[in-house]
């Protein structure tokens, strides 16, 4: 099925890697719209400082740079065999913030996914997910792919579609299952293998004299059941892949650490996560698991919001 891919670009290194990722994600026939948001310089400086510079000249320069960023992105995507659109969003005209303009554009254009670098200059500044990416995740109704500035660069195949190895984190929640279905569909589309990882976030520590064996056994049984379900789904869909169970270390380690390690071990091209779920997965939207995974995975992280369609 043809997808509509919205790519936000600002000319930064993470933005350039997001551009390459959009070309990797796209298949022949998919539509790509590249957007660049021009913030109003009046809102970026204090009134005192604004008296010392020509803000209208600054705004014109920002618009010119934005058009150049879009032109370079379009040229690159055309060289990859794609037929992109370009759209410059002037926030002075719309009165919006960067995330508001991005999610509105995604909604009005009917985007199936938003791809964005997680930091850089302008509105996407911070090395953490940052306020822009957080707000996009909070309000997006479609999957959002985050490409960190430190994510490994690669060149997409010109035939369309690049992914060979996909990793999805699975627990027993509904949103996690929907993320799995999305990853399964993505693997089928790209002819990729799919590795499924379940991280045992074991409870503890326990009071002296308490026997944790039954509780720990029940937690492990839930994980085994989730992986059994995933194995059957892989078989039914005729998608090559495997399943893996990981357990976090008792001290100094979290769920994200094991997801990242699994991604590295699998040499995954992309990691897929649901944005809500139980225990360690419960705060993916703004929580430490999503943040830590996106910051340190060294590869793109595709987050599926609770309200996003599974395919």
From TrEMBL:
InterPro entries: Rossmann-like_a/b/a_fold, Universal_stress_UspA, UspA. It holds the Pfam family Usp. SUPFAM superfamilies: Adenine nucleotide alpha hydrolases-like (SSF52402). Residues 1-147, 163-304 form the UspA domain. Belongs to the universal stress protein A family. PANTHER family: STRESS RESPONSE PROTEIN NHAX, UNIVERSAL STRESS PROTEIN UP12. This is Stress response protein NhaX. It comes from Pandoraea terrigena. The gene is nhaX_1.
């Amino acid at each position: 099925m043809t997808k509509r891919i919205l790519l936000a670009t600002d000319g930064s290194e993470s933005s350039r890697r997001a551009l390459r990722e959009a070309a990797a994600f796209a298949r022949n026939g998919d539509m790509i719209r590249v957007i660049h948001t021009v913030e109003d310089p009046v809102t970026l400086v204090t009134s005192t400082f604004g008296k010392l510079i020509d803000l209208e000249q600054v705004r014109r320069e920002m618009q010119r740079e934005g058009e150049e960023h879009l032109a370079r992105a379009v040229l690159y995507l055309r060289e990859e065999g794609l037929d992109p659109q370009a759209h410059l969003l002037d926030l002075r005209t719309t009165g919006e913030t960067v995330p508001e303009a991005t999610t509105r554009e995604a909604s009005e254009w009917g985007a199936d996914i938003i791809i964005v670098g997680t930091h850089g200059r302008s509105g996407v500044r911070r090395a953490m997910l940052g306020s822009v990416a957080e707000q996009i995740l909070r309000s997006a109704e479609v999957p959002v792919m985050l490409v960190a500035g430190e994510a490994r660069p690669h060149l997409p195949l010109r035939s369309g579609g690049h992914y060979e190895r996909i990793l999805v984190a699975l627990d027993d929640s509904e949103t996690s299952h929907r993320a799995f279905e999305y990853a399964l569909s993505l693997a089928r589309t790209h002819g990729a293998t799919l590795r499924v990882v379940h991280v045992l976030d074991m409870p503890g520590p326990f009071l002296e004299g308490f026997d944790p064996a039954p509780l720990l056994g029940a937690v492990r049984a839930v994980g085994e059941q989730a992986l059994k379900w995933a194995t059957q789904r892989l078989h039914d869909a005729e998608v090559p892949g495997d399943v893996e169970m990981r357990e976090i270390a008792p001290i100094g380690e979290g769920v994200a650490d094991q997801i990242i390690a699994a991604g590295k071990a699998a040499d995954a091209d992309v990691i897929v996560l649901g944005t809500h779920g139980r225990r360690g997965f419960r705060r993916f939207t703004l929580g430490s698991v999503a943040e830590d995974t996106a910051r340190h995975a060294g590869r793109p992280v595709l987050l599926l919001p609770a309200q996003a369609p599974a395919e």
